[in-house]
Design goal:
The protein has 325 residues and is an alpha/beta fold. It has one domain. Helices cover 45% and strands 10% of the residues. It contains 13 helices and seven strands. Strands 2-1-3-5-4-6-7 form a seven-stranded mixed β-sheet, with helices on both faces. The longest helix has 24 residues. 38% of the residues are buried.
Length: 325
């Protein structure tokens, strides 16, 4: 795979002037539909035929390096070392594996308890055969957030035509006023810093992407893997490190067996509430920004102690387990 195009989505003059190593600028300062976030960029790239001009394409936010602790040179090296996949994902929050059974459980706390039900209503309106009400277990081998995907022309063509565009092109009549306002009108509850407070659309598509890839590309998706010290380094808050240090062996055992009994589900229920509410509490009192590099070394609660390892060397990656629609 020789022709790998890594784009940095630049929405401001500052972002355009400060490119992450290994990325090429994608000037999108006109930003016509901020409520769609990165998905309007993906649509514009498809209309311009950009994915078809490259063996592999990714278009990520200017916060990619600050969130993932990886630059484009490292991403290119990882992809080159593992050729042959349709899509590659870099999950910025690998610590979630030890806190949340899946990303929808977390969304119920962060974005509201009706998030999954409304997501399913959107899928049904678009006639997309995905069951968001039963996403199953999501971990670092089948989950990626922040739309940090790098895919082949085949991936982009199917992803856009089978998931993204059918949802984005639903009319107000097809959605109904209440669901349309949920996607586009009323800002969704969210802890992050943002110039434009979006409705649910980008958050819905962000979570559905992992479910879609598991069903549409079984065995053909690769997720960037980190070892335990690297996962601890990725944490934003001390309670995440505490939970992982204390319980990672047990969670790994559940995942290795693929069996989640009553004890496991009780753990994830409580750990998810602890983790999500912890994010909300810390972010309320001390908002964390990724606009000026990795904030972790500067966070006041980490000033007294740092994790032992600072390596970001890629670890062996694993494929997505085969699943059906």
């Amino acid at each position: 795979m020789k022709n790998i195009q890594l784009l940095q989505n630049c929405l401001t003059d500052t972002q355009l002037a400060h490119l992450m190593p290994g990325f090429k600028a994608l000037d999108f300062r006109h930003n016509p539909r901020p409520e769609c976030r990165e998905f309007q960029i993906f649509e514009a790239l498809m209309e311009a035929g950009v994915p078809q001009s490259h063996d592999l394409l990714g278009a990520v936010s200017s916060r990619f390096q600050a969130k993932t602790r990886l630059n484009g040179l490292q991403v290119r090296q990882w992809i080159t070392a593992h050729p042959g996949y349709e899509v590659y994902g870099v999950h910025p929050w690998p610590q979630w594996q030890y806190l949340h059974f899946n990303s929808f459980e977390r969304a119920h706390i962060i974005h509201g308890p009706d998030f999954t039900a409304r997501t399913q209503q959107v899928l049904d309106a678009a006639r997309i055969p995905i069951n968001a009400t039963a996403p199953g277990r999501q971990h670092n081998r089948n989950l990626c957030m922040s739309s940090y995907w790098f895919g082949t022309p085949r991936f982009w063509g199917r992803f856009m035509s089978e998931l993204v565009l059918p949802i984005m092109r639903l009319s107000p009549r097809e959605l109904g006023s209440e669901l349309h306002d949920y996607l586009y009108g009323n800002p969704l509850p969210y802890y992050g810093l943002s110039t434009h407070r979006a409705g649910a659309l980008p958050f819905v598509l962000e979570r559905l992407t992992s479910l879609y890839i598991a069903a549409a590309f079984p065995g053909h998706a690769l997720y960037y893997q980190r070892d335990l010290p690297q996962i601890l380094e990725s944490c934003l808050f001390p309670f995440e490190r505490d939970l992982i240090t204390q319980f990672h062996t047990q969670v790994d055992a559940w995942d290795a067996a693929g069996v989640y009994d009553t004890e496991a589900m009780r753990y994830f229920d409580r750990a998810s509430r602890h983790g999500a509410h912890g994010w909300l509490t810390y972010m309320l009192m001390h908002p964390v920004s990724f606009d000026h590099g990795d904030p972790r070394p500067r966070l006041p609660w980490f000033a007294r102690q740092a994790p032992a390892s600072t390596s970001v060397t890629p670890c062996p990656a694993v494929t997505v387990p085969e699943e059906a629609w």
